[in-house]
Amino acid sequence: MEQYNVTGMSCAACSARVEKAVSKLDGVESCSVSLLTNSMGVTGTASADEVIAAVEAAGYGAVVKSAGTAKKNSAVSGADEDILKDKETPKLKKRLVASLCFLIPLMYFSMGHMMWGWPVPAFLENNHVAMGLIQLLLTGVVMVINQKFFISGMRGLIHRAPNMDTLVALGAGASFTYSTFALFAMTDAQMKMDMGKVMSWMHEFYFESAAMILTLITVGKMLEAHSKGKTTDALKGLMKLAPKTAVVLKDGIEQEVPIEQVKKGDIFVVRPGENVPVDGLVIEGSSAVNEAALTGESIPVDKERGDAVSAATLNQSGFLKCEATRVGEDTTLSQIIQMVSDAAATKAPIAKVADKVSGVFVPVVISIAIVTILVWLLTGQTVGFALARGISVLVISCPCALGLATPVAIMVGNGMGAKNGIMFKTAVSLEETGKMEIVALDKTGTITSGEPKVTDIVPASGVTEAELLRYAFALERKSEHPLAGAVLTEAAERGLETEEVSDFQAVPGNGLTAMLGNVVLRGGNLKFICKYTNVSDEIKKQAEVLAGEGKTPLFFGKDENLIGIIAVADVIKEDSPMAVKELQNMGIHVVMLTGDNERTAKAIGLQAGVDEVIAGVLPEGKESVIRSLKQKGKVAMVGDGINDAPALTRADMGIAIGAGTDIAIDAADVVLMKSRLSDVPAAIRMSRATLRNIHENLFWAFIYNAIGIPLAAGLMYPLFGWKLNPMFGAAAMSLSSFCVVTNALRLNWFKIHDASRDKKIKTKSKKKQEEVTMTKTMKIEGMMCGHCEAAVKSALEALAEVDAAEVSHEAGTAVVTLNAELADDVLKKTVEDKDYKVLTIE
Fold first, then answer.
1. SS3 assignment, position 671
2. CA distance 265 to 727
3. Burial 679-697 (b: 16+ CB within 10 A, else e)
4. What angle do the packed helices 195-202 and 128-145 form, to 10 degrees?
5. Which residues, including other chains, have CB under 8 Å from residue 317's CB and lie 6 or more apart?
6. Rounded CA separation 171/152 (Å)
7. I need a labelling partner for 798 at 20 to 30 A (CA). Which of 93, 205, 444, 730 fits?
């Protein structure tokens, strides 16, 4: 996506016009314009020159964001920070102060003296023409001060793209023009000494309305600009985190250099209390590093030689010497900033309705104003009365509130997510995440820690725990099996000394043998160990209990004697059961996917509290499982983003968990920087809160115009005698956008991890289709382990007619659920192609 800064936009009609103009270009696949950040994101093959030319032809200006190479060389360019700086509020404040300097005396002469008899100099006491001229001059000055409304509004009319400024310019211009006409008519009556007409024309002055409209709209614009500046606080906060200098070692000498000069491979040092300048790898020293700036996690993380550190994190205690691995725009911080910025440049689906309305809003309002004036004139009202109603319609109508309703909430929601380590890649992902009905969780690394640990040590009679672990440690040291690492870690934590074994042999799928001095050590599964030693029924029962809890029992023998069992398991994370419960309280069906056998999977699923367990799923089979789940509702897949990429892409919403510094995961729509499963319900909660806020904003914007325009047109006048002064219309217009932006800012106080207000979503009812379902039970020979189960399950579920296959290597069966007729021969061939023998099909 190529991003541009757009100048000259003042309301939603402007952004709709720019978007329409660029979208017409050949080679433009999509275009999204943000009124909030005055930016535009364009994807496609159209050149930057063509895009800029199209924007200029529409009456606006555009430049490519971060032109040149500045951004490549620095983590966060000064240009980026400058773009987000609130430049509008100071300008508008100056305009407002200048306007008030002339508006206050104008109001004194026009209303204070005329209505309440406030004193004026004697020579003006009965000089009505002079009073009119003073009002004309003061109003003229206010109009010059606020000339931007007229320049922008007239430019919009010339390009046949009227905007909010057009409405203000027409309203103020009509008031001034008619008042000037009334002044000349009054002057003529004065010369003819017709005092009745003089007083009559004097009451037709709307000079103060013209000046007040411009001043009040400026007040509204200033409040809006200030509030809009607040919505990008999160992004500006991230940018401020980027260090400006780094201490680099050159020829053994420490030199402080600008961050732009740090290159990949440079050695830099970080002292206690300093921020890490770029992403790097620790080559010397150890310290506790606070990564709250990136992940939202306040607890410092211990770093030592070989660990990665990220730019903008705070070194709290020790001295670190690091090698730069990622610099400039490649650092984690820069990628986060880019992701938040890209999300702000995209458009949520819900915004399309508002955009369509905004595109025709101004011409429709102008038409309503003209019709209002004509109707009141035809009913016999005075020109002044009719004109006041038309002007009120023009100045009360506000397309800005419609245009800002969605992007301000998206920006604040995205910023809140980023502060908590939850990255929504696009506005679409922020809107859609809260609509998920099913969440599929990959077991390893998502529900569990992903690292096997020793959970139980069961020594045989006459053997101590320390003795069992010592022999197991000696045997497993040379093993490359993943479960061996758990035994080694446990032994290291207990401080056991290393003992060398000889004649080490690994028997694939079975076990290990080695010599420790004159002693033969053996380790492996029950089937392997039973070949060499006698295993009592009591030990076998204990092993079954452990297996039933989702643990893997490893049997160890010394010579011909069993010395005990060490149970190893990939333990579930502390927050996993609570996170699953929170998802269920939101009305979400939670599914666990795993390659484990049915027994182990169900044990872990029971501990986690999930609604459904799908076992025996190989990495390549996850995508087909997600496809079948999507038939039941909207599915979010949560995985590590690496071997889960096909499933993340297939799901309605792909959520990558535990990304850490690698946040640029293409397959994911949402990236969670921490490995906490509790961030999944937090992301859904943030999405729902943002969508709720957007609905509130859109309701306010639509209802404001739905009530305000008829009231301004005078529809209530015949019934209740209600009529709206143009000045009050302008005040209402000023406050409408301010209210929308302020409502969005409430998201800054949203408690993203507070589950107390979670509600179950109302899922769209689906038409129940009568489906012919049948099951067939296959007797299969040759399956020995969980991998065999997974291979058979994957092969069967690849058939279009198969909805599910429940496979058990212990029972030697596969129960197949079909959605259509399927010949037994096809089922048999499918399984036997995997080198297993099918005995019967029932």
1. strand
2. 65
3. bbbbbbbbbbbbbebbebb
4. 20
5. 272, 287, 288, 300
6. 14
7. 444
pLDDT computed for residue 821 by the predictor: 76
CB under 8 Å to 74, separation ≥6 — which residues?
Answer: 242, 259, 260, 328
> Beta strand 320-326 with 267-270: parallel, antiparallel or unpaired?
antiparallel
CB atoms within 10 A of CB 265: 10
Mean residue pLDDT across the chain: 82
For helices 207-231 and 164-191, the axis angle rounded to 10 degrees is 160
For residue 75, the model assigns a pLDDT of 47
Catalytic residue flag (residue 754): no
Measured between alpha carbons, how far is 754 from 780 in angstroms, rounded to an integer? Answer: 50
Torsion of CA 470, 473, 476, 478, to 10 degrees: -110
- Burial pattern 184-210, b for ≥16 Cβ within 10 A else e, equals eebbebbeeeeeeebebbbebbbbbbb
Q: How far apart are CA 371 and CA 673, in angstroms?
A: 57
Phi, psi of 320 (to 5 degrees): -125, 135
Distance CA 37, CA 342 (A): 11
Answer for the pair 333, 239: CB distance below 8 angstroms, yes or no: no
Contact 501, 517 (CB under 8 A): no
First to last CA, the chain: 56
pLDDT exceeds cutoff 60 at 331: yes
List of residues 6+ apart from 76 with CB closer than 8 A: 239, 242, 333, 334, 337
Q: pTM for this structure? A: 0.69
How far, in Å, CA of 681 to CA of 579, rounded?
7
Residue 669 near residue 647, CB atoms below 8 Å? no
Q: Is the pLDDT of residue 781 over 70?
A: yes
Phi first, then psi: what are they for 28, rounded to 5°? -90, 115
Q: What's the pLDDT at 13? A: 74
Neighbours of 216 (CB within 10 A): 25
Q: Treating both helix axes as pointing N-terminal to C-terminal, what angle do 195-202 and 164-191 enclose, rounded to 10 degrees?
A: 170
CA atoms within 13 A on the CB side of 87: 8
- 751: its two tokens: 């408690």
Q: Which of 266, 442, 570, 679 is catalytic?
A: 442
Q: How many residues appear in the chain?
A: 842
Q: For the chain, how many helices (H) and strands (E)?
A: 31, 30
Does residue 764 have a pLDDT over 60? no
Of the candidates 808, 806, 841, the residue with the CA atom closest to the CA atom of residue 826: 841
